[in-house]
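Pilot study result, target chain (296 residues):
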Amino acid sequence: MAHDDHHQHDDTHAHAHTDVDWAELAAHLESQAELFAPLYENALGWLGRVAEPGLIVDAGSGPGVVSCLFAQAFPGARVVAVDSSEPLLDRAAARAERLGVADRFGVLAGDLPGVLDQLDYPADLLWAGHSLHHLGDQRAALTAFGERLAPGGTLAVLEGGLPSRFLPRDVGIGRPGLQARMDALQEEWFARMRTDLPGAVAETEDWPALLGSAGLRYTGSRSFLVDLPAPASDRARAYVSEILSRLRDTVGEGLDAEDRGTLDRLLDPADPASVHRRPDVFVLGARTVHTAVRPA
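Predicted structure:
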């Protein structure tokens, strides 16, 4: 399990496959989270309204970029990064060492939500960033997350938001509206992915209601913006290229020949119209955090 970006999930749920090689994606996951760091920092600032936590658990931490942001934002807290991929946790621990927070940073390897039973004590803040939708029974997972909170502890679930945009509606080649058409295909892909998960249970994605059904008191939702205007940095261009490449691999067959041709041109570094070279590439999207508290 690892942080990808969102349902609209990012920009691609491509790495939501249950048989994905997370270690192979490690560099991409790190770069993506670093690019989105201002968004995460704003979200952590909003979460700072809760009492100073003693233990923060990042459930589905991936390579630990957000876990380390938590350690920096809450200097009095111990942070535990939890993930099923040991190679990603190795990278998380190395990052914590580089940033000077290793003395209060730990890792825990195993599958969610059961691995949380191995925590030494309940969490004051449990963050589930784009990890819940990888679990077949989301309602049961939320209940398990809530049971690992200390009384008065906060669960923060990052799910949903808005599809990211990287290019104008009309890019000057092919038919306008390519990203919107890929969004529709991506939604179908995501629905199939969810259906194919072990123990999949269909749920209305009413997060306040789901959190309430897990025995928690819903306390609010807020969306946070990533807004990296054109001209894009090299890191942003690399991110856009990676996302569009994964979309071509996962939903490209659903596009017509003209759209596939446009996508190929956008990904060809030698083409002046590609995202590697064109001046109008940007990154704009929104991510939503839902919070609830375990009653004292």
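One observation from the pilot: The longest strand covers residues 149-165. A full batch analysis is planned for the follow-on phase.
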